[in-house]
């Protein structure tokens, strides 16, 4: 498979999607943020002084999805039709699993928007909690599912 973001001179370009058909598209991404047990407990109980960590991270993740084309140089600005962010608190592993689902109807997919959403949500959790836990770790940022376009429906298997 050739790289599609290079021109004849080997320099970066934005891919031309003019010829592509509009299709319904969906992307689901995940990230994890691992922390001290006390930090997770403070998030659950509302004990973080900066406010409701998950509510702020949810809004930040949605904003991140909407701003992806401003952050990633070769991403097309898209009309996003829906963004949802969910959090799963795993007390045994002392982590929060962040899942985003992004939808559009258009010529190109929303994988980057879904990945940006979970990344920004994780960074927001870090920012709001760093005063009590500087060594939190953001990990496992990945695409979980993709639907629409030429490749159809793809679902990550295994991890």
UniProtKB/TrEMBL annotation:
Q: What is its EC number?
A: 4.6.1.17
Which Pfam families does this one have? MoaC
What are the GO BP annotations of this UniProt entry? Mo-molybdopterin cofactor biosynthetic process
Highest taxon above the source species? Bacteria
- Keywords linked to the UniProt accession: Lyase, Molybdenum cofactor biosynthesis
* Subunit-level organization: Homohexamer; trimer of dimers.
Q: Which family does it belong to?
A: Belongs to the MoaC family.
Q: What name goes with this protein? A: Cyclic pyranopterin monophosphate synthase
Question: Which species is this record about?
Answer: Thermosyntropha lipolytica DSM 11003
